[in-house]
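Study this fold:
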Amino acid sequence: MAALREKIPELTPSIVAGLSLGEFTALTVSGAISFEDALKLVQVRAEAMEDAAKNNPGTMAFVMGLTIEQCMAVAQEAGCEVANLNAPDQTVLSGTLQSIEQACKIAEAKGAKRAMPLKVGGAFHSLLMGEAKVRLEAALAHTLIHEPKCAFIPNVTAQRVSNPEEIRSLLAKQLTSSVQWVRTMATAKESGVTTYLEIGPGKILKGLARKCQPELEVFSFGAMADMKGLETLTLLAKS
């Protein structure tokens, strides 16, 4: 984002959101958290999650082809949790190794196109991250958070929030809560903003936006090669 602003100084977002770790980027871009404080929080978060994963072993699984409601039923039956609601037909489950193994079998029996464990280090966005949540809360308590300069949509509620104390609470809750990305995209659409930028490597969020709200236009900027779209972006920023 800093690199883009060097090229387009007038580039100012009307609304921001980030998937999981991306929330810290979104809040930094919005002016709610300083770049330096965001780095410190990300370090605390990462170390706390790693320790929690060692103390409470678990994993995650990707399920494709089932509705959100079906995935919730799978999670309940298997004894795991819904971690990410990425798209109407793409959900990630999180839990113990045994519960995730069982969840994959149940999902396949229900007709899932794919149900496979992910190569991750723990059961993120689940109650198994409880001790990490406590450590992040402690770090957040000593972090200065301002009211965002633009609309911010958090993962936990997928509803716009601007109160610094509420943001502080939601950042910690995110570690043990579902990432409500489907609802986040719905809230984005309701805002009236139709053009979005995906800042960072890859084009995953662009793909999810197409699945959630096809009418939203998303430009991805993750490499120097993507700078060829700057002319279009400059026109958008000035409009």
